[in-house]
Design brief:
135 residues; 3-stranded mixed sheet; mainly alpha; globular; 3 strands; 2 domains
């Protein structure tokens, strides 16, 4: 059975910008990965066009970083592809920088831009329905 890639592209669109003679994805990274894997396995025709959202200009570094952080974090927290709390904590600490003078990454400017209501490990643990101990 062939997966419905149109639905995947709607749920997690590929957003790109032109870079020299190629395109660089800033969002939809899991979609790109799924299409590449399917193409290798001959489940997605190599010549079939893939719909993307093309940005006119390359976004600034901080915008690209925020987009990627958001995509990775929402996949981690909301789609629950990892259930091990220690692994979740490891990923979050790798993706977000703790600001000087703050107790944790959950008070950092980067984190609060994406999750203004999740301001502590307690709130993140409650959101995930996990123990705060490993977070």
């Amino acid at each position: 059975m062939r997966p419905n890639f149109d639905l995947l592209l709607i749920q997690s669109p590929i957003i790109c910008y032109a870079h020299r003679n190629t395109y660089r994805a800033v969002s939809g990274l899991f979609t790109v990965s799924a299409i590449k894997k399917a193409s290798i396995q001959n489940a997605f025709p190599k010549d079939e066009p893939v719909r993307i959202l093309l940005l006119k200009n390359k976004p600034p570094v901080d915008v690209r970083k925020t987009i990627i952080q958001y995509e990775l974090t929402t996949n981690l927290l909301d789609r629950c592809f990892i259930s091990d709390t220690k692994k979740i904590s490891t990923f979050l600490r790798a993706w977000f920088v703790k600001d000087d003078g703050k107790r944790s990454i959950f008070q950092s400017k980067e984190w609060l831009t994406l999750y203004p209501d999740l301001t502590s490990a307690d709130k993140v643990a409650k959101y995930l329905s996990v123990s705060k101990k490993d977070l």
